[in-house]
Amino acid sequence: MATTQVHISPAGCLRGAALCFPAFPGIIALGMVFGTVAAQKGLTFLETLMINSLVFAGASQFVAMEIYKDPLTWGGLIAMVGVTGAVNMRMLLIGASLRPWLGQVPARNTYPSLFFLTDLNWLIALSEYDKGTRDWGIYLGSGLFTWSVWSVSVIPGYFAGSLISDPKVFGLDVVLPAFFAALLVPLWKGKRQTVSWLVAGAVACITWALVGGYWSIFTGAIAGALAGAYLDD
Amino acid sequence: MTDGLFSADAMFVMAVLGMTAITYTLRAGGYWVMGRLPITDRVRRGLEALPGAIIVSTILPIVLKGGLAVGLCLIVAAAAQIKLRKEYIAVFCAAGAAAALRAAGM
Description:
Chain B: Keywords: Membrane, Transmembrane, Transmembrane helix. The complex is a heterodimer. Chain A is mostly helical. Chain A folds into two domains: 10-173, no CATH class; 188-233, no CATH class. Chain A is built from 13 helices and no strands. Chain A has helices at residues 10-19, 24-40, 45-55, 58-67, 74-87, 90-97, 99-102, 107-113, 119-130, 137-160, 175-184, 191-211, 215-230. The longest helix of chain A is centred in the middle third of the chain and has 24 residues, at 137-160. Chain A is globular, with a radius of gyration of 19 Å. The relative contact order of chain A is 0.17. Chain B has four helices and no strands. In chain B, helix 3 crosses helix 4. The radius of gyration of chain B is 21 Å and the shape is flat. At the A-B interface, helix 3, helix 5, helix 6, helix 7 and helix 9 of A face helix 2, helix 3 and helix 4 of B.
C-alpha cells in the first residue's frame, strides 16, 4: 500500500461526501442555530451568509457573535478577528498532520483545498489514510460537501428562528463529539497511543479548568504529540 | 425589507474578511510549515500522535462542560464503535442516549 501514489478521482470525492453523513444531523442543527443567533443579533441575510460561508468555522463564528455589537467599532472588529484566531488555533495542528497525506499533491491544488479544512473532513481523511486509502478526493469531497450543507443550513435557521430552539432535546448536540469519539477508536494501536492520549487528556483538562475557552485543544494536542514523539518503544 | 436583507455594513464586511483571512492562514499555515521542516523520525512520530491527541483534547473539555450525560453518551458511542465499527450507528446510539437521558431529566 505504500507504493500506491496519492491521486484523486470523482469516485473518491463522492465517497468522501458519503462518509460525512453520520455527522450531518449535528452540522445542520448547529448551522440552523447559528442562523437564528445571527438573526437575533440583527445581521442582515447577506451578512449572515457571508460570515457563515467565508469563515466556515462553527465554534469561532458563535464566539465572534458573542462579541458583535451594532454598530461595529474598530475595537469590536479587532476583538472578533482575535477570538476567531484563538478558537481556530487548532487548525495549525490539523493542517500540519495532513502533510504526509497531501504533501505529494501539487501545491496549486492543495492550497485552495485547505480553505475547506474542518475537523470533520480532516478526521475522515485521516482515518481513511490509516486504512490505506490514497485517493485525496476523500478529503476534498467531504470538505466541499460539508461546506455546502453548512452554507445552506443557516438559511432556515435565519428565517424560521425557533425551529430547533433546543438541539439538546433531540440529542443533536452530542452528534459531533460522538462522531469524533467513534473515529478515535480505530486510531488506537497500543501503548504509544495510550500514553499520548492520557497526556493530551490530562493537559487539556488542566488547561480547561485553569483558562477555559478553546486553548485546551491546542495545549492538549501539542502535549500529546510531544509524548508520542519522545516515547521510544 | 428586501433591501435590508441584502445589504451589508462595511465595517461588518471588513470583520468577516479579517476572520476569513486569519482562519485561512491557520488552515494553510501548519501545513506550510510542515513542508519546510525536515521530517525526522521524531517529527514523524509526533505527527502520527497528533490526530488522536487533538481528538482527545477536543472531546474531554466537552465532557467536562456537558456533565455526566454527555460523558455517558460518548462512552455509548465508543462502545458501539468497538463492537460494530459503523460510525453512523455509533452516532445514532449516542444521540438516542442523549435524548433519553434528557427526557429523564439528566
